[in-house]
Amino acid sequence: MSSNDITSVLKEDRSFPPPSAFQQRALIGSMEEYDRLWTYAAEQPERFWAEQATTCLNWFKRWDRVLDWQLPHAKWFTGGKLNVSYNCLDRHLLTWRRNKAAIIWEGEPGDRRVLTYNDLHHEVCRAANMLKKQGIGSGDRVTIYMPLVPELAISMLACARIGAVHNVVFGGFSSEAIADRNRDSQARLIITADGGWRRGAIVPLKANVDAAMAKSPSVERVIVLKRTGWEVPMQAGRDLWWHDEMATVSANCQAEELDSEHPLFLLYTSGSTGKPKGILHTTAGYLLHATLTSQVVLDLKDDDTYWCTADVGWITGHSYVVYGPLANGATTVMYEGAPNFPDWGRLWEIIERNKVSVFYTAPTAIRACAREGSKWPKQRDLTSLRLLGSVGEPINPEAWMWYRDTIGGGRCPIIDTWWQTETGGMMITPLPGAMATVPGSATRPFFGVVPDIIDASGNSVPRGKGGFLVIRQPWPGMLRTIWGDDERYKTQYWSQAPGVYFTGDGARQDAAGNYWILGRIDDVINVAGHRLSTMEVESALVSHPSVAEAAVVGAPHELKGEGLHAFVLLEGSHRPSDSLMRDLMDHVVRQIGALARPESVRFAQALPKTRSGKIMRRLLRDIAAGRASVGDTTSLEDFSVLATLRANEDV
Ligand code: PRX
Question: Which fold has domain 544-646?
Answer without folding.
Answer: GMP Synthetase; Chain A, domain 3 (3.30.300)
